Write the structure tokens for this entry.
Amino acid sequence: MNIFNKYPYLIAEIGVNFYDIAQKEGMSDMDAAKFMIDEAKKCGVDAVKFQSYKADTIASKNSSAYWDLSEEPTPSQYEFFKKFDKFGVDEYRELAEYCRQVGIAFMSTPFDFESADYLDEFMDVYKISSSDLTNIPFIKHIASKNKPILLSTGASTINEIKQAVNAIEEVSTVDIAIMHCVLSYPTAYEDANLLMIKDLAENFPDYEIGYSDHTKPDKEMAVLTTAYNYGAKILEKHFTLDKTLQGNDHYHAMDPVDVVKFQDNIKFLSRINGKRNKQPLICESSSRRQARRSIVAARDIGNGEIITYDDLTFKRPGTGIYPSEIENVVGKTAKVDIAKDSILNFEMLE
């Protein structure tokens, strides 16, 4: 079954980017988060997604960074997460209610058992991060909430994905979307491997397929558009209002201009995709007659003559007998005089 009621379904991952927007704009963290929700809604995003965690439950104090330190200079995962773990249940409840008021779906990725529990109160769909794909106890805990799950698959094997899916299905019958993802920040274009979307569709034919993108937005939003064209129905990308801000999730995030470009691409794809079943189109009806060929007399054929192959040729327009019918013409007798270059029809023959 489908998790969402429209496709493509675009999720703008605000994540923790609102903290930097708050600092830049001189507003509170909550006001910045709501401001970003408003901007996502304006440009046509279907859902916004945050990240719920506490540094003490997500990373060891001895953890090192795995991102581009020139963009996010914090050398420790613990130190990074500590900067952005101020919000808890009350704040996310307020944001969920605000999303309801403005008419956009609220989501947040839980990174610990506590956040998975409190998000259940006001969230309809869970997202499991690539980083937790092998965290089977946590996956089962989320699955026990009996809500649809988006399963990110960055840095994983097919067997690891199957283990995660099996873990979900051991405790629940919820719908699952399997999200192609590359766990590299930013993902180089040559590492995007969008063909893996098709591989996931072949390996998991009974599940929806999506794509969580970490490439830098290209000028035409071709990466996200191609992912959709390859079969990713659910699309997720980090969202910012200023790509120049320092921080792990700004420089590879889309902004409202990018979202509008993507939406325009989807509208164009809808126009050019058209019907799936091959058949002549109304716009081809004149061309079908004029550009195809008919059986034409190659010489003057007298009344009573038996038609041979040498008597015939094939020319435009296709308003007479198609060349595919030649076996039904050769051997027939002309009922009338047929002038050279005449388009044959069966009324001339017996």
